[in-house]
Structures are given as C-alpha cells and as structure tokens.
C-alpha cells in the first residue's frame, strides 16, 4: 500500500465513472454475458497483490461488464431508485473522508448531518418534529429498529424490560397485518425473537386487502392486552395502502402499537396529489422509509422514526467505559440503531435534500406518478395487455393477455416473457403473483426516467410477448 497509488486511482475511477454515468440514459441494462463476467471474479486469494491501478482497471473493465445499470432510467425491477448528482458526490466524499458516524466525537459532521437530515425528512413527510429517528441500511433494518421499539413497549406493558431480561416468561406477541405486509417486516419479527409466524394475516380478498372487521374482533378478544399492528403504506405488488386512519382508530381504542412500513409509499406525503393515500401516518407509533428508493440516494440507506424518541436509546445503547456518554447537543447515532461503527449515509441524504429541496422532490414524485399513469393508459389501449389493479402510486400491475391464448396458459406465458425481458436488457422489470395471477409490476421512482423510457417498457413486453405467444 503506498500513497503514490492514490492520485491515479482517484483519476481512473472518476474518469470511468464519468463515462459510465454519461451513457446511463441510453445504455442497456446489461451487456451479453454479464453473468459469466461476474463468475469470472471467482478464484482464490492472491498471495501477491497486483496493486491499486491494475485492480481498479480490472474492476472497471471486467466488473462493469458484470453489472446491471440499475440506477439508469429503465430499471423498473423491485423498487429501484437512481442516484442524484448531489447524492453521488456526497456519497463519494463519505468514503474519501471515511467518517465513522457512530459517535459525535469521531465525526461531528456525520452526526450533525444525520440530525439535520432526519429533521428535514420529518418535514418532508409532514411528521411531528419531536419524533426520534435514525438512518439505517434500508427498510429492512428500519423495520427492525421500529419493531424493536415496539417490542420494548409491548414488554413494558407486561412489566418486563425486554432489552435487559429477554423474552422468557412473556406471552407470545400478538401481531396483526394485512396480506400487504412486506416480507422484511416479517423477517424483522424473526430477528427480534417475536417470530415470523407470530403475525396473523387478516385479509378479505386474494390480493391481500385488510379485513378490518376481523382485526377489530381480534383486538376485542385480546381484552386490552397490548398488540402490534403492522400497516403498509405502498405494498410491492400494486402500490396500494392499508387503511391507516382506521388502523390508527383501532390502535387508539385498544391500546396497541401501530407501525407503518412506508418504504416507498411514505413519499406519497411529499405531494398534495398523493398525500391522501398516506393519511394517518402521523398517528402511528413508528414509521419507516427507504432512502435508496424514491429519495434516489445510493445504496444503502433507510430511515426509522418513532413517536416516542426515548424508546431508541434503551434498545440500542452500548455503554462502556471507553465510549462517550449521552449529550443532547452531541448525538451518538451508534447508540440509536443496530450498528455501532457506521457509514456516514447522512452525507448523501443531506446533500440531495439541500440540492433539490422540498420542491425538487415534489416534482420528482409527481413526474413519476404521471409516468405510472402513462403506462396504465398504454396498457389499457393495448389489445394484448390487461391491467390488474388501479394505479395508486408508482407501480402498474398488468399482464399479457393476447387474444387466442387460453386463460390457463397465461401464467406460464407471462413468466416466460418476464425471463425474456430480463435477458433482453433493454428494460428491466420483474414479475409477481397478484391475486393468484403472474403479472408484471414495474415501479417508477427514478429521477432519470422519461416518457420514452416507459413507452419502451410497454413496447418491449409486447414485442417479446408476441414472440413467446407464437
Ligand atoms: C414495503 C417495503 N418494505 C420493506 C422493503 C425492504 O427494503 P430494503 O430492501 O431497503 O431493506 C421493501 C423493498 O422493496 C418494501 O417495498
């Protein structure tokens, strides 16, 4: 390792990144043989290293060939954001400065930017200013943070400090959700020892909508015993929302904890056009969202907010003689979330909010909503496509249904075309099962995406669909 390597390393990476990002709007999602290019990185640990220049050259030449242009405008798979210029620059600086955002004393900048970012996010999402918060690696860990606080509250209602004493002796935790609950909220329940199977899914139809009456009955049966309600603001198949105000009413009436997973749906609150969808979130006990989805900051980034800010510290504190103590003016975010040493994700969050402001994000969300409506219109016009759900937000759920193809062959056809779209690489989109039917579910949250991009999405699915159907 020698210092002379540094300048050429930075120059090479900046130069190649510039070229890559410059071509992102036109580039296919991957080149032919991209998986083989990834496998080529298999191999044993080198005895002698080759140095920074050769290593980075390999990464940009062979590595780029193994990557997917997922931050580009035509990646509609999962819910994938892009990276704004301000966020990218700030994220690079987070590595260059290599700030440990664990404790104020190691990075006053990282800690203060996190505090400011969280305050700005609360403003952006119209959440009360006194809620506690912390940046996480994503929505999975944000769900974990929020549900850890819920677990603490629940055990406290049984007279137990669960973070000190653990779960032994406590009854099973009653957890209720609709079929919209995200698999990572369930995963968080598993990680917390509450158990993945503890959640009772109360649905009234095949797509998973909440059975509110059944929820009310279940809470009445508990007769005042504390419970956790998991609401989803923006579910992954069609972008729909649980009835959060009604769930908040039940929470208040029965003395429960209401958690809202708004990984991308919380961004409905950024625009008056969509804010009604996420009404009632401000009445929850905890709410989370992702940064690497609609905020368009690089992986990895999420946020957790809890109404009672004092819940975080007893769950995540890690006191030791050599570590700093509590000081409200000098926050130590490593004591408010699961990681101790941690990346300064706040650089990118702060920078993108500073650069584009509330208006920039409102315009981004509204542009993406219009694009989703455009996809829906194109689908509705096409004789070989069938839309399966209303477009609430940024996801359009539809399938190929070419005339003449019998119903029982449609799932197989759509699954085959789904594979073909991914292999083709002009656009990227996954399939799901919605109401029992295999369907496409493009999600539109990238700041780069244009009308031409979403038109190409529909055209490619129809073209490959026609090829597969014959
Ligand atoms: C509603 C919801 N919750 C949680 C997650 C998990 O997010 P992450 O992958 O950032 O952990 C997602 C991801 O798509 C999601 O849509």
Keywords:
470 residues; alpha/beta; Aspartate Aminotransferase, domain 2; 7-stranded mixed sheet; 14 helices; 11 strands; 10% strand; globular; binds pyridoxal-5'-phosphate
Task: Describe this structure in a few short sentences.
With 470 residues, the chain is of the alpha/beta class.
Structural commentary:
The chain is α/β, with parallel strands linked by helices and 470 residues long. The protein folds into two domains: 3-69; 89-355, Type I PLP-dependent aspartate aminotransferase-like (Major domain) (Aspartate Aminotransferase, domain 2, 3-Layer(aba) Sandwich). It is built from 14 helices and eleven strands. Strand 4 (228-232), helix 10 and strand 5 (257-261) form a beta-alpha-beta unit. The chain starts with 5 loop residues before the first helix and ends with a helix. The site of pyridoxal-5'-phosphate has 15 residues, from helix 6.
């Amino acid at each position: 390792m020698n210092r002379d390597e540094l300048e050429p390393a930075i120059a090479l990476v900046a130069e190649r990144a510039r070229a890559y990002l410059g071509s992102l709007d036109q580039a296919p999602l991957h080149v032919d043989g991209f998986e083989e290019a990834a496998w080529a990185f298999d191999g044993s640990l080198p005895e002698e290293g080759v140095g920074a220049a050769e290593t980075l050259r390999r990464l940009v030449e062979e590595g780029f060939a193994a990557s997917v242009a997922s931050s580009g405008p035509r990646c509609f798979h999962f819910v994938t954001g892009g990276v704004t210029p301000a966020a990218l620059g700030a994220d690079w600086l987070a590595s260059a400065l290599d700030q440990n955002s664990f404790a104020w004393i190691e990075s006053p900048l990282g800690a203060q930017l996190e505090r400011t970012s969280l305050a700005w996010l609360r403003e952006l999402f119209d959440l009360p200013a006194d809620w506690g918060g912390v940046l996480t690696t994503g929505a999975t860990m944000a769900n974990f943070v929020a549900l850890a606080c819920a677990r603490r509250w629940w055990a406290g209602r049984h007279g137990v400090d669960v973070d000190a004493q653990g779960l032994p002796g406590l009854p099973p935790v009653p957890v209720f959700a609709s079929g919209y609950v995200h698999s990572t909220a369930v995963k968080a329940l598993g990680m917390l020892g509450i158990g993945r199977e503890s959640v009772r899914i109360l649905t009234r139809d095949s797509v998973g909508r909440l059975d509110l009456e059944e929820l009310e009955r279940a809470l009445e049966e508990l007769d005042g015993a504390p419970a956790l309600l998991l609401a989803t603001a923006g579910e992954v198949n069609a972008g729909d929302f649980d009835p959060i105000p009604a769930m908040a009413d039940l929470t208040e009436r029965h003395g429960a904890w209401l958690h809202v997973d708004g990984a991308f749906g919380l961004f409905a609150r950024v625009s008056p056009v969509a804010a009604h969808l996420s009404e009632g979130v401000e009445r929850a006990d905890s709410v989370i969202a992702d940064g690497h989805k609609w905020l368009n900051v690089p992986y990895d980034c999420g946020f957790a907010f809890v109404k009672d800010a004092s819940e975080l510290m007893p769950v995540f504190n890690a006191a030791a003689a050599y570590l700093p103590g509590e000081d409200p003016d000098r926050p130590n975010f490593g004591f408010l979330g699961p990681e101790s040493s941690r990346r300064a994700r706040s650089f990118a969050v702060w920078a993108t909010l500073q650069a584009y402001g509330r208006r920039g994000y409102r315009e981004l969300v509204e542009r993406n909503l219009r694009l989703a409506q455009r996809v829906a219109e194109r689908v509705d016009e096409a004789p070989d496509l069938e839309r399966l759900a209303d477009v609430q937000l940024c996801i359009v759920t539809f399938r190929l249904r070419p005339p003449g193809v019998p119903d029982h062959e449609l799932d197989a056809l759509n699954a085959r075309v789904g594979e073909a779209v991914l292999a083709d690489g002009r656009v990227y989109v996954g399939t799901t099962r919605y109401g029992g039917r295999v369907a496409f579910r493009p999600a539109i949250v990238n700041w780069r995406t244009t009308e031409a991009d979403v038109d190409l999405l529909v055209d490619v699915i129809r073209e490959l669909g026609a090829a597969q159907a014959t």
